[in-house]
Amino acid sequence: MVFLPGLVGFLFVLTAEAKIGKSVGSSICTETKECLDFDLICETENYEVRHYDSAKWVSTQEESYFMEMATSRAFRRLFKYITGANANGTKIDMTTPVLIDVKDKPFWKIGNFTMSFLLPSEYQEDPPQPTDPSVYLHETPDMNVYVRSYGGWMTTFTDTSKASGLSQDLKSAGAKFNKQVHYAVGYNSPMTLLNRRNEVWFFAEDDPVCSSSSSEESV
């Protein structure tokens, strides 16, 4: 079925503040005290549609042919920020998820990857400023996203494969979404070897479509 536009509008105005909650009891966030909460709009056999409120993040950019190489350097830079490389010398708890902004590109070109750590609830209003000029604070807007989850390790190959598969399913469903960029999303420490959780997010550009195929009847 196609999701009712009126209900989508309702979810957009639920709140203008970030919803960052405790991870206790969460089946998604299992390694941090807090994670970014969401409203589940709908779920099909191929994807979920979620609504996220605006939230503040600390981010950095890195260039490479391969996501793994870029994110390894970016992670170390952001980890320094949360362990005291900020104007207040504050140690900040790790949260989930970690976002990686992945722009569509030919495989032979260098990509620009942006990694972001979610700021905990106590620092959403007034986060400490980074001391590294390549690290910065920014805010994501309210957004509806199409989501596909998968296990194992997040690599250039797996992310590209999962993003391509989700993109094809969204096109088949007649969904309008940003095809030029997606988020590669991680929930685990680099030290976690088993039962890892990753996701691919595409940004919805219109009322979310909650049918697996455009040939299905809408209600």
Oligomerization category of the chains in this entry: single chain
CATH topology: Multidrug-efflux Transporter 1 Regulator Bmrr, Chain A
* Share of residues in strands: 25-35%
Structural class category: alpha+beta
Number of domains: 1
Helix content: 10-25%
Taking Cα atoms only, what radius of gyration do you get, to the nearest Å? 17 Å
| Gross CATH architecture | Alpha-Beta Barrel
What coarse outline follows from CA principal-axis ratios? globular
- Number of β-strand runs: 11
Question: What is the mean predicted local confidence, pLDDT?
Answer: 88
Lateral arrangement of strands in the main beta sheet: 3-4-9-11-10-6-7-5-8
- For this structure, what is the CATH homologous superfamily? Regulatory factor, effector binding domain
CATH class: Alpha Beta
Q: How many strands, what sense, and barrel or not for the largest sheet? A: 9 strands, antiparallel
Poorly predicted regions: 1-16, 215-219
Order of helices and strands: HEEEEEHEEEEHEE
Distance between the termini: 5 Å
